[in-house]
Amino acid sequence: MDLRTEDQRNTEALLGRILCYIHDVLLGPPASRHSPGLSALLPHDDLDRLSGLRDVVSRLPVTDAARTTALSRRWRGVPRPDARRVTSAVSRILAAHLGPFRCVDLVTSYTEESPPGLLARWLQLLAVNGVQELVLASRPRSFDLDLQLPAALFRMDTLIRLYLGLWKFPDTAGFNFPRAASFPNLRELGLCSVVMECRHMDFILAGSPVLEILCLQGNFAMDRLTLVGGSLRCVQTSMVSDLEISVEDAPHLERLIIWSAASTTRRCPRKRIKIGGAPALSILGYLDPEVHTLQVGNTIVKSKKNAENTGKLNLKFWEESGATECIRSHIKLMVFKNFQGDQSELCFLKFFLERAQMLQELVIVYGKGYFSSMAEANSRVKTLFDTTWANTCCSLLLFESKFPIDEEREILNFKRGSDFSIRDPFSFVVQA
Questions:
Q1: Cα(first)–Cα(last) distance of the chain, in Å?
Q2: Under 8 Å CB-to-CB from 83, ≥6 apart: which residues?
Q3: How large is the C-alpha radius of gyration of the chain?
Q4: pTM of this structure
């Protein structure tokens, strides 16, 4: 019998979805080629035969019981010893390790039984042993997100890669904050649903002189991201709301990727994406005309807004604007997502095809199951061939997405966007 109230169930469900998103974007520890994975399934057998040994697992010591989760996913909740035994075991493991730590993936779940200062002591042990890569996430029982990051985290000067999930940035005014706080070797930083203000982000960027990759998922209490750093090469955001981004001085920035963004209210003015000092910037997107206004130098690019927003593409706006130099002479690949076959969409695509002289590929992606068959989808784009294309060598590719229109997830993690061996990080959408 479920004794939770409806509000408690809704809160836990929301927190579960957020945790799911965080685990999607968090990068896991590197796998060793010398340590093959274990499986509880026999070849060509879908039965999980080892789960029948759950009673045996519950009688094992904590450290041995924890290792059994590699054998059966159903054992991850068995046994459930008290928090003191678990934390004591982890503390002994960390203290006994001679170091250095290559990579540590730590998910903490605070309870009333957790000893005060426990996490700080663990981080101090990791710092002493020269940890290089750290994934640190919390599993709060409520949506308050009041778990503050210990000051010990900001003394870990050997970190090269750091990902944080579901924490609150400490208050620098009333917190015993280390004056020498900095990450002199940090090259990659991911902040997932971390409650922090703009000044906290400025503080971190100022103390990370060699930071190359910055990933931001969610932006609680932060409405501005100012990018100033001579080493930044890639900045990615996901699931952000009402966030302004200003690139003021980033001479090596190559990629600014906004995987998904939203406005909390339709009355909220569009947030500006301002590109100032970024001479190396070659990849920018996605920009939502309902959410963003783009400013490059002193030039402001924004879409016109009708008195009544119908949700349809405004062809009149494009016709009045004319074919820009970018459309005529530079665009080689165009990806049109969530195609529904509306007349406004077809007119918009014809506009591009008639003017884009360098366009080599037009990729159209429709939501899974939106059309009953590929034949029906093909029939919806057939009229595009009735017009004269500016580049007769251009090819049209039609794909069905893996997700329905209302369920599509922009990206499963930040890995693709920060992988510089992938020339076009947006091309994943054509994989049907």
A1: 42
A2: 111, 113, 114
A3: 25
A4: 0.74
